[in-house]
Design brief:
By secondary structure, this protein is an alpha/beta fold. It has two domains: about 220 residues, HUPs (Rossmann fold), CATH 3.40.50.620; about 80 residues, no CATH class. About 45% of the residues lie in helices and about 10% in strands. It contains 17 helices and nine strands. Strands 4-3-2-7-8 form a five-stranded parallel sheet, covered by helices on one side. α12 packs across α15, α14 packs antiparallel against α15 and α15 packs antiparallel against α16. The longest helix is centred in the last third of the chain and has 17 residues. The chain is globular, with a radius of gyration of 22 Å. The N and C termini lie close together (about 10 Å). The C terminus is likely disordered.
Amino acid sequence: MMILRELGVDVLSAARQRIINVFENGLPVYLSFSGGKDSLVLAHITLSLGLQGLIDFNRLRIEFIDEEGIFICVERTVMEWRDKFLSLGCRFDWYCLEVRHYSCLNMLENDESFICWDRYKSDTWIRQPPPFAIRSHPKLHPRLDTYQQFLERINDGVHITGVRIFESIQRRQAVARKYGSFTKGKTEPLYDWRDEDVWYYLHANNIEIPEAYMYLYQIGVPNNRLRISQFFSIDTAFTLSRMSEFYPDLMEAILRREPSAYIVSLYWDSEMFRRRTRKRHEMEGEDGENYREKVLDLLSNIPANFKSKSMIATAEEIRRKLIRYQGYLNDAAFRRAYDILRTGDPKKRSIRGLIFKIICDAADKNNIRTPSNITAGNKRKARGKGNGKAESIQPEYRTE
């Protein structure tokens, strides 16, 4: 966890200076590009600085990990930005590699991974890779590496991304842990941008965004959940529930590749996807379940109750955390722990969020000021014009 201190400068000026500072290290600079809203902002700011002669384009390398399961409009956006950077002499690496992704669709088969561009399933690929794509690399461990592991292995300079701390508790904690250091070769120039800052910048600079954002917005997805990354993670699988309405051909391709994708349409608003919407609550009412007993029962015999290695590891981690924080647990914590045990958490993001919530609930109960109630107050401020103040992020104490 961390504390935030407001600086005397707006977030755009702060981001520009952070990018300039990165280039002054004299190292190669790798910019992760996905075609999503945050990476578009980061790419546009970087491009503008280069055109102004404030950074050296010769040291800039753009990296795009093509995850196979992406919107066609995102592919088109990346193509356009690739042309822009190449025309200015920048290197643009478009990777179509056999990297491993977590898939929330395959838990019923005890196989929680999705292999992008799986060589054994080339006849059912969702898309075909572009002819210029990089299909292999000597430092890649095919089918084993995540793309994050691969990029860390090949990058010999500073890696900049569009990660923002206000997107999730987990990202907030991750940035805080490495604040003020390039020891891992990563930095996030946009870390203190809020959603309204991102959307305002895109509008003010007339930056074209993938049309999938508009389709998602039209079907009721709120601004803070407009994400268009790979389809099979727990955070983005909801797009599959309405995919056939605006991309029927793409949905057919997805079903050929991942036949179990249809379960999202049937069970999206259920515990399988950690969903408890107001509509479902009104239909079902209070469930009256004793989640403390249910969690303790599941954890009493982990090998018998969980089959996959990932689910067993999640259960063991939950057990350790509940023992450590047993003096601070309430019914809500056990209900959240139960959801995690049912759906899995291979990246431990939900577990970190659970621990953060336990600590903040305990602090609220004892009237202690924490980052949770500080940022909650900030979010209530009306700042729709995207003129947010930049903030420094500093570690105060950690949950781990």
